[in-house]
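tool=predict chain=A
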Amino acid sequence: MDLATLADPVPARPADDDAELAALRAWVPRQRWFPEKGTAAELVRLAVVDLPDPRGDAEVRVHLLALPSGAVLQVPTTLRRGSVAEGAIAEVPGGTLVDGPYDPAFVRAWLAAAHHEAAAPIEPGPHRVVGGEQSNTSVLLPDADRPAILKVFRGVTVGANPDVEVPLALSNAGWRGVPRPLAWLAGRWPSADGVATVGHLGVLSELVLGARDGFEIACEHAREGRDFAALAADLGRTTAQMHRALRTALPLADAHGPRNAAQRAVEVRKVVRTLRDRAAAAVAKVPQLAERADAIDAAYAPLERLEAVPPLQRVHGDYHLGQVLRSAEGRWYVLDFEGEPQASASEKTRPDLALRDLAGMLRSLDYAAAVGGAADPGWLTAARAALTAGYHDETAGGEDADVVDALLPALELDKAIYEVVYESGNRPAWLPIPLAGVDRLLGRR
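tool=predict ok
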């Protein structure tokens, strides 16, 4: 973990219960990024970070709120006198409490407090909040002197956030497939047990002008019956390049050193055990998986015959079409290295199999075909084949084909099972998509 990215954390101060906290307790659980929907857990305010607005137009502060689970949420606010067009939370003594990302005063204050890579801070210009995000809030600054996007981490963790650490390391290593971080803001606050902790509050990154979301593009191609294979092959090559860059930028000690037969056997058993444990937990949660439990267990049996699995490394961790952009000049860019939203801080940075990212992108193609309404089943078949071919072409024979043939379907099955659990609790109408994927991988259709 590169703690240098946590330079100059802004301090927090204690704060008593007040009208603002009461307003936040009512408002926060209704937001898309609230991680524990359906619970009645009361938010406890750990501290407040003051961010002075350079123009003095509004009071800007960041509330750090703890859940009983230990999760810590960040809620930036401004206090405005008079009417507010967007982002109003509630009327409180002194004015209107506003969700900070909607207010230019917060953007100015954030930029003034942040650590900037360049000598001169960015001049923001007009801004726009990105809608529909599940776990963070992003602010577009297309008219800044350096077009940028500000991501406010709604869930904050101790230490360097991977979405600062990883893109910065990749950029410094010379890989151009990720928007470069331009500035970041860290804070210092007391944990629930009073221990002083430091973590990232947000990051400002280059804005890829004229880019389109990968899932949007894939759905459009599926809907219109246009071949996606060439774009998928290029995405496969980009994925392999990302993994190679991650090994260079964030190497693991002894990860690629020689391993004897006993060590390789232990690694194989650990992978199989992890997959089966995750499947058992999913079967216990979702009734539709119970009738498939024996077939799932049998699907992992071929892994037991492997002599080795690839070395672990840093990976993306939540890789799908919504995490990539296609630029106007025809290049894929990879975003959002935080890992799965529900994962713990340690899980988000834990080394893993690089093929898990490829498996996630294969699953995303299934979603694009279903959501886009691909009329020809061949559309998905061609896109999947092109993605894997592009990946393997870029690795230039550096992978054991027998290992990949056994491991990749198992990892895709693991991801599809995860999706079944997620959709059953969040989007039941989409549940047939991952269930169809599970059945295909089990040879049931």
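The chain has a mean pLDDT of 91. The first helix runs from residue 19 to 27.
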